[in-house]
Amino acid sequence: MAPKKKTRTTVGEIHPDALAYTAGRDIELDAALVEADCLGTAAHVTMLSRMPIRPLILGKAEAKRVVRELVAILRDHESGRFPIRLADQDVHLAVERRLTRRLGDLGRKVHTGRSRNDQVALDLRLFGKETLLDLHEKVAELIQALLNMARKHVAIPMVGRTHMQKAMPSSVGLWASAHAEALLDDVVFLMTAYDLNDQNPLGSAAGYGVPLPIDRDLVTRLLGLSRTMHNVLHAGNARGKNESYILQAAGQVMVTLSCLAQDLVLFSMPEFGYFTLPPAYGTGSSIMPQKTNPDVLELVRARAARVLAHGQAVLEIIRSSPSGYNRDVQEVKAPFLEGLAMTLSSVAILKPIVEGIQVHRDALEAGFSPDVFAADRALELAAQGMPFRSAYQQVKRELASLEHRDPYHAMARKDHLGATAGLDFDGLDRRAGEVAAFVKEDRKAFHKALGGLLGVRYPLARAGDSRNPTSVAKGCNSAGSH
């Protein structure tokens, strides 16, 4: 068998087997980064055209030509006419190939002063910023759906459980707003990840800077990022750690969603009958005609495990890396993109499910039995002066005497902060509104900066575009039913 010929690429010749192995899944995954790569390149060439050197590497008119071609690439990408080829290796060289083919030597100049190391780091941060804004928005919408449910059913009793056993009187309002408040706490973590991500690593090049008078802060402003990463070596070393911050924050969201999903699966079982889930979000059985299965909720539980595993996988990949760029971090891209995809799609799918839940008061009332009121009665006796442990033992002996207790009365008596009759819906609504306002304000400023950079209205397209991270997690949304 004749030996395979080397494949010619922009950065040299390579054996085709080595090319396939090193490119890995980048040809597939980098479709999600085309827009970010074009934005980063637009900012970079604009900065090059303003460097205080003679001769200019790029004149201002030349930089504008490059930016116009980058906009054309974005439009072609939106319509599926911008392929990333194996010989390209990744999105960065695919964009450079196109610029060189259309602009000649002008295209060959665009990589001056940068490396694919800082280029991909920037791409992932730009992608992460847009996606985190989307995730904040979707989480805020789910929070509001849960709060609406809680407010609507605040006076409907529900048995509270510990160890899955009946415990104390509760309410649907307390249950639903608990999940809402958990997500509000998760948003604090998301905000931290967003802040850490919102930095510009470009200009660090291969991790050691360049002997050119580049203006890194100008690039930061052009891209609508909050600040420039200072130390150029750190800017490169942060690759992987930044993705792990985001995945760990996403993982906390998924843990909350998994708990919510588990509750909904249990409480919609016929044996409970507390809730009926919207039929449109259930799936049928291939053999049992009567079945409507909560597959969506089951997959939320499973995908929570996968997002947590993706976050751990990223940490394992980078934990033994020395400082400076190492190709190991290429393997961070897939878990990062897929983990974000699963989180965003999981949050989005739960909102209409929560909004469509039917609450069955009769079944919820029927769930109460005398023992549910035992702790309340012991505390009543303690309030009358009996030592609590004595009250505890007395109630334990006389559970049957609690038979005619009223769950509505029990709910009304717990009027301290955060209990069944003390829920601060206005405060929770305000916190949810602050998240929505943050997204609106930051997205507006971000898109304004990018529109000014490109000289066109931004975003070019939103619906169904490849910036939606769900498009890169192929197969993660498929569901079977049994």
Give a description of the structure.
By secondary structure, the protein is mainly α. It has three domains: 7-108, Fumarase C, Chain B, domain 1; 116-155 and 170-211 and 226-365 and 423-450, Fumarase/aspartase (Central domain) (Fumarase C, Chain A, domain 2, Up-down Bundle); 369-404, no CATH class. It has helices at residues 16-23, 26-29, 34-48, 60-78, 91-103, 105-108, 116-152, 172-197, 216-222, 232-237, 241-267, 295-318, 333-355, 361-366, 374-383, 388-397, 407-413, 425-454; strands spanning 7-9, 12-14, 157-162, 165-171, 199-200, 227-228, 275-276, 358-359. α3 (34-48) packs antiparallel against α4, α3 (34-48) packs across α9 (216-222) and α11 (241-267) packs parallel to α13. 42% of the residues are buried.
Could you give a quick summary of the protein structure above?
The chain is mainly alpha-helical and 482 residues long.
What brief labels describe this structure?
mainly alpha; Fumarase C, Chain B, domain 1; Fumarase C, Chain A, domain 2; 3 domains; two-stranded antiparallel ribbon; elongated; disordered C terminus
Write the layout of secondary structure elements.
Blueprint: E1 7-9, E2 12-14, H1 16-23, H2 26-29, H3 34-48, H4 60-78, H5 91-103, H6 105-108, H7 116-152, E3 157-162, E4 165-171, H8 172-197, E5 199-200, H9 216-222, E6 227-228, H10 232-237, H11 241-267, E7 275-276, H12 295-318, H13 333-355, E8 358-359, H14 361-366, H15 374-383, H16 388-397, H17 407-413, H18 425-454
Parallel strand pairs: 5-6
Antiparallel strand pairs: 1-2, 3-4, 7-8
